Amino acid sequence: MTPLLSAEVAAPPRLQAMRLEILAGEKIALIGPNGSGKTTLLRALAGIDDDASSVYIQGESLTLVPPARRAKLLAFLPASRDVRWPIPVRDVVALGLAKPDPARVDQLLKRLRLTDLAERPIDRLSTGERARALLARALADRPRLLLLDEPLSNLDPAWALRTLDLLDGIASEGCGIALALHDLSLIGRFDRVWMLDHGRLVADLPPAKLLASPEFASVFEVEPASTGWALRPSADRRSSP
């Protein structure tokens, strides 16, 4: 099967060279300790900061497509929710469209339960509400590939699960998704997991195989426990004074 995304990226010393693929409809969880390179990788795949000449989406080079076409191929949602624009939520969502489409904006406001907030300036929303509005903007032009950096941060548990359900539906329509997250309990919702450590891709596995792998235990220094996760004894000894 021809991949939706085919990329060779590197951003030394932050990110070592790696080759990656995502199939249409595939959901990838991107995990790793703080500073492992998750944000750098997503920005490299989005063609931000680094050369994207080796990033192809549906066989099209990301550096060669015009802006309107790029919006149809790719949307990148950064981790920051710090928005200072006094712009109504409705207009923020519309910024994600290459051409005006009020019906599409209304659809997304409804799907993310933002209709009652549509005329409120986005800088007056809570962090979780802003996260939903910015996700709506990323989804606006129905991109073929979504690159999402910590989209579940600042969301309460119900909205985190609603967001994952929404992404399941989008993936079922053929959209590829790569999503960085810290909550390891959620990786079972994904098809594959990319695990980074010190800027290297150390594993690309289905969730169950990843959790049982020695690479996972080594990188995260935790093991399953009745309460969720517990430090591995060796990791606990290393952190002792």
Automatic annotation (TrEMBL):
Signal peptide residue numbers: none
Q: Which InterPro entries match?
A: AAA+_ATPase, ABC_transporter-like_ATP-bd, P-loop_NTPase
For this UniProt entry, the molecular function terms from Gene Ontology, in alphabetical order, are: ATP binding
Q: Organism, per UniProt? A: Sphingomonas kaistensis
Q: What does the function comment of this entry state?
A: Part of the ABC transporter complex HmuTUV involved in hemin import. Responsible for energy coupling to the transport system.
- Annotated protein name in UniProt: ABC transporter ATP-binding protein
Q: Which UniProt keywords apply?
A: ATP-binding, Nucleotide-binding, Translocase, Transport
The residue ranges of the ABC transporter domain are: 4-223
